[in-house]
Amino acid sequence: MPTLNDILTLLPELYLTGAVCMLLLIDVFLQADQRWVTHWLAVLVLAVTGWLVVSGQPTAPTTAFGGMFVRDGVAEVLKVFALLASGIVLVLSRPYLRDRELHLGEFYTLILFATLGIMLLVSAGSLVMIYLGLELLTLSSYALVALNRDSRLSSEAAIKYFVLGALASGMLLYGMSMIYGATGTLDLGSIRAASATSAHPTLLLFGLVFLIVGIGFKFGAAPFHMWLPDVYQGAPTAVTTFIGSAPKLAAFGMAYRLLDSGMGGLLVHWQEMLAVLAVLSLAIGNIVAIAQKNLKRMLAYSTISHMGYLFLGLANGTPAGYSAAMFYAICYALMATASFGIILALARTGFEAEEIADLKGLNQRSPWFAGLMALAMFSLAGVPPLFGFFAKVLVLKAAIDAGMLWLAIVAILAAIVGLYYYLQVVKVMYFDKPEGEPLRAQVDPSLRVVLSANALALLVLGLWWGPLLAWCQRAFAG
Amino acid sequence: MTFQLLCFYAFAAVTTLAALGVITLRNSVHAVLCLVLTFFSTAAIWLLAEAEFLAVALVVVYVGAVMVLFLFVVMMLDIKQEPLREGFIRYLPVGIAVAAVMLAEMLALIGVRAMAQVPAPANPAGDSNIAWLGETLFTRFLLPFEIAALILTVGIIAAVALTLRRREGVRHQDPARQVAVDPRTRVRVVKMAAERGQEPAA
C-alpha cells in the first residue's frame, strides 16, 4: 500500500494533476476574452510545480510505489527544464493563438497534461510507467497537432503523427513484452540484474532492437524521422514549438531509463545501434535541410540532425557521456523555443512567416528580432561562443572518449554542412531587400521579454556554462 | 499433445486468420465482424491461460460495447472502398515477402525452443484470478492504474476539443426554457360568437 512517503515523493506530479483538473474546471466558466486568466494560471502552475520539484528534491535517489517511480538527480534536472520549456512555449504562443481563434482552454490543459507525461516518463522505474508516461505525452500531442481543425495540413499532420506514433508504441510494447519474457520482470533495476544471467539472451537482444526503434521514433532520429517534417510544418506553430522542445528532454529521459537503468548490461550492443542512428540522422538531417524553403521544415530536419549529436553522447554509455547528452538536450530545447519563437513573433492574422523568404530584410524592419534570430541560428549551427557550440564540443568529446573517432569526424563534417543552411537564414535577414508587406513583430510585452531572455540565454549560457554542466554531472554522479 | 494445447493451437489459428481478415476484406462491415472474432478467440486463449477475468472483460467490454459502436460508425460512414485500395494489390507481393522474411528471421533467432518453455504462473498463491488481479491492481500497480485514468481523461478532453464547435444560427432546444414556459404565453383563448351553421340543403 502507498505510504505518506510515497505521496510526498510524488508531490510535484500530484500537485500538477490536481491543478490541471482545477484549471479545466475554471476555464469552463470563463468567457473567451477572459482566457488570460487561464493563461497566467497555467504559467503559475508550472512555476509552482518547478518549485516543488527543486525544493522537495531528496538528497539520495528515492523510489516510490514499490520502485515504480524514481526521484533522482536526472529526473530533477529534466523536470525543471521541461517545465521551463513548457512555460516559455505558453507565453510565446498566446498572441499567435489569439490571432487565429485557437486560444482555447484545452490548449493549456493538453500542454499541462503532456508536461505531466514528461515528468512521469523521466521518473519511470518500470516498463509499465515508461509506456504510460509516454502515452500521456503523445496522446496530448496528437490532439494538440490537430487543434486547428479547419486546416487541411494540420489534420493531415495529425493523422500521420497518430498512425506512425501508434506503430512506434506498438514496436516499443512488443520489445517490452520480449524483455519481460526473457527476464520475467517489469522493474528496470531487476531487468538490469536479470539480463546478465538471462536464459534467453537472443530474446533479450531482440527486445532491445524493438526498444531502439521505439526510442528512435520518439526522438525523430533517422531512419524513423518520416513523421517529423510534416508534423512540424502542419501543426500550428505554437504546437510545433512545444513538440520541438520539452518532449526532446522526455525522449532523452526515456532513452536513459530504458538503455542505462534497464539494459545497461547490453551496452556493447546498443552502443553500435545508436551509432548507426546517429550517422544516419546527422547525414539525412543536415543534407535534406539545405533543400528546404519552408523554415519550419528546415528546423524539422535540423532537429533530426541534432538528435544525431545527442546520440553521440548517449552512445558513450558512461556518466560523462550521459551528462553531455543531457546538456545537449537542454541546450536543444532552449534553441528550439528561441527559433520557433521568432516565427511566432512575426506571424500575424493570415500570415504565418514560415517561409525562409518571409524573413527577407528583417534587419531593416525589426533589428532586435533579427538579432535574436541570428543568435538562435548561430547557436544551432554551433558557432562559438554560443550555447550550441559548447554542447557540441561535449558530445564530440564523449564520442571520442568512447573510442568512436570516426563518428566524431562524421559529426564535425555534418556540422560544417549544417552551417550553410543556418547562415542562409542569417543572410536572408541581413543582406536581402525586404519585399511584400512589411514584417511587423508582435507587440505583446510578455512575448518580447521572454523571447529576448530566451535568445540571450543562449549567449549567456555559452559563456557561463559551468554551473549547468556541473548540475548535469552531479545528476549522474550518484 | 494435450487437449489444452490442441485448443490453444485451434484458437490461435482462428485469431490469426480473423486478424488477417480484418485488414484484407473489402467490405468494412465484414472486417469489423472479423475483428469481433479476433477478440473472441483471444478471450478464449486467455481462458486457457486461466485469466478468466480478463477474458470476460474482453468479451463484455470490447465485443459487447466497443465493437458494436464501431459497427454503427462503419455503417454510417459509407466509405468508398475502391480508391482506398488502389495500391493494395500492387504492393501485396512485396509486403508478403517482407513479412515472411521477418517471420522466418524471428523464428530462427528466438527459436521455437524458447517459446516452448511455459512461463511461471503469475499467481503462485492460488487465489482466485479476480481477487488476485484486483489486489495487485490496487497495491503494486496502483500508480500505473491511476495514470491510465489520466490518459482516459486526456482522451475525453481531446475528443471535446476536436469535435465541439459552437455553430451560429443552428436551432437547438433549451430544456430550462422549455420547462419554465408559461401556458398563458403559448395558448391564446379566443372568444368567438357562436355561429349558426348552414342548414344542410334538403
From TrEMBL, chain A:
Keyword Acetylation: no
A Pfam family hit: Proton_antipo_M
Gene Ontology biological process terms, A to Z: ATP synthesis coupled electron transport
EC nos: 7.1.1.-
Protein topology in the membrane: Multi-pass membrane protein
Compartments it resides in: Cell membrane; Endomembrane system; Membrane
Transmembrane segments: 12-30, 37-54, 74-92, 104-122, 159-182, 202-222, 268-291, 298-315, 327-347, 368-391, 403-423, 449-466
Keyword Transcription belongs to the record: no
Cellular component GO terms held in the UniProt record: endomembrane system; plasma membrane
Taxonomic superkingdom: Bacteria
InterPro entries recorded: NADH-Q_OxRdtase_suN/2 (IPR010096), ND/Mrp_TM (IPR001750)
Family, similarity comment: Belongs to the complex I subunit 2 family.
HAMAP family, alphabetized: NDH1_NuoN_1 (MF_00445)
Oligomeric form and interacting partners: NDH-1 is composed of 14 different subunits. Subunits NuoA, H, J, K, L, M, N constitute the membrane sector of the complex.
Protein's UniProt name: NADH-quinone oxidoreductase subunit N
Gene behind this protein: nuoN
TrEMBL record, chain B:
Enzyme's top EC category: translocase
Keyword set, alphabetical order: Cell membrane, Membrane, NAD, Quinone, Transmembrane, Transmembrane helix, Ubiquinone
GO-annotated molecular function: NADH dehydrogenase (ubiquinone) activity; quinone binding
TM ranges: 6-25, 32-49, 55-79, 91-112, 141-164
InterPro entries: NADH_UbQ/plastoQ_OxRdtase_su6, Nuo/plastoQ_OxRdtase_6_NuoJ
Cellular component GO terms held in the UniProt record: plasma membrane
Topological relation to the membrane, as annotated: Multi-pass membrane protein
NCBIfam families xrefs: PRK06638.1-4
Summary of the function given for this chain in its UniProt record: NDH-1 shuttles electrons from NADH, via FMN and iron-sulfur (Fe-S) centers, to quinones in the respiratory chain. Couples the redox reaction to proton translocation (for every two electrons transferred, four hydrogen ions are translocated across the cytoplasmic membrane), and thus conserves the redox energy in a proton gradient.
Record-stated family: Belongs to the complex I subunit 6 family.
Protein name: NADH-quinone oxidoreductase subunit J
